[in-house]
Amino acid sequence: MITLYDLNTLRPDPYRTYSPHAWKVHCVLRFKSLPYQTFWLEYPSIESKAKELGAPPTSTWSDGSRYTIPFIHDSTTNKVISDSLLIVEYLDNAYPDTITLITPGTEALQSVFADAIWTVYMKDIDPVIGRTLPNKFFTEANAEYYRKWAPKDPNEEMTEESIKDSWKRFESRFGELAETIGDEPFVMGNQVSFSDCALIGWLMLLRFALWDDDKGKQRWNEIMEWHGGRWKRLIDTYEELRDTRI
Amino acid sequence: MITLYDLNTLRPDPYRTYSPHAWKVHCVLRFKSLPYQTFWLEYPSIESKAKELGAPPTSTWSDGSRYTIPFIHDSTTNKVISDSLLIVEYLDNAYPDTITLITPGTEALQSVFADAIWTVYMKDIDPVIGRTLPNKFFTEANAEYYRKWAPKDPNEEMTEESIKDSWKRFESRFGELAETIGDEPFVMGNQVSFSDCALIGWLMLLRFALWDDDKGKQRWNEIMEWHGGRWKRLIDTYEELRDTRI
């Protein structure tokens, strides 16, 4: 049995987490139709749980190693893997009878693509989303940690006008991405890949941040209409798959 | 015979152009071992030549269509194609006996990768390189056009310190890219692709800007040593191929 260690919130399943990286793994597990369970963590307990399992840190900060969500433990093979891309590479290798999400040779391309979703195509919306978090669905421990880790910059006060502009620029950049992907359903044409799950993951972060009140829900529904409804079709394709969570 | 329409400078071949997009096509033609000739244009004559041949514009500016380098004319098929990615897709299809540079299904991934080279991994060096252009190898017409099109921002004056920092950040980001690509020679492992030619193209722009004086040459040689010499190996792989230019 695969256990996915994910970030807890007060929102009910299936939209409980807001970690785009954990979402990627949910998505991949569902596309692979692999049964799994979720173990919910809060920021202050990520490092100790990772160390207990032997999940390696995913990066280095000036004050030491950094342990992050997601990591998985696979009791069938007794392997523990951190980092969404490495988790998916592991699953492709360990379960060769399931759909391959990272076709050999495309690792670097998909890694750069997955990173570019936020840093290039969604960058304009980053400050807009950032100011709405932590929201009422954060647990107390996560909210406290989040505020320390991502303190609001008082110089970054946004006006109604600048927020509107940010949404416009985001829509336009996402339109460029839609054009680059073209008419076929997935980033790699008719073949689903890790890159689609990365897109779904970042969109799900957006959904988490927006799905707070009527205005946010309306905004989400608008995004789902953008670019001929292509993002809605992508989300729908994922949601129509059987949920393999135990 | 394929004719590649490229941007003229005063630098002798094979380093005559500084257009990263034209470089991509030189690279692809050489990897495909397809004979071709070059037709050198200056900025003010790009649009008229493109229109004369029927090469479509590559983007829209507020004041109308924008015609850019490179475009090709293939007299064998009598086709005219603009935009480096579309040119390479055309060559893959028209010359199926040559190496495929864009494996079907990877178009969007390679397009995003090629764009991310400059906008993500080289972005820190953009203002440093920008201030050295136009240099003494620009023709008069190109220099005049370039100054109008990319006027220097007086607020962007850089200090020795900020230039040093930019180089450090560029080296660090390129290090991340090197790590993402891994130990194999090409972005897609052992298989060369459009993405490698995009890397070579942007590096060649850097070479053009640096290869002015001893300090710049030294800087270029340092880059060639970075990250275990992996960028030098990439450039060498390209340069060791037979030049198929007529």
From TrEMBL, chains A, B:
Alphabetized InterPro entries for the sequence: Glutathione-S-Trfase_C_sf, Glutathione_S-Trfase_N, GST_UstS-like_C, Thioredoxin-like_sf
Coiled-coil spans in chain: none
Organism: Tetrapyrgos nigripes
One Pfam family recorded for the sequence: GST_C_7
Similarity annotation: Belongs to the GST superfamily.
Domain (Glutathione S-transferase UstS-like C-terminal): residue spans on this chain: 108-240
Residue ranges annotated for the GST N-terminal domain, each copy included: 18-93
Descriptive protein name: GST N-terminal domain-containing protein
PANTHER family: GLUTATHIONE S-TRANSFERASE GSTA (PTHR44051:SF8), GLUTATHIONE S-TRANSFERASE-RELATED (PTHR44051)
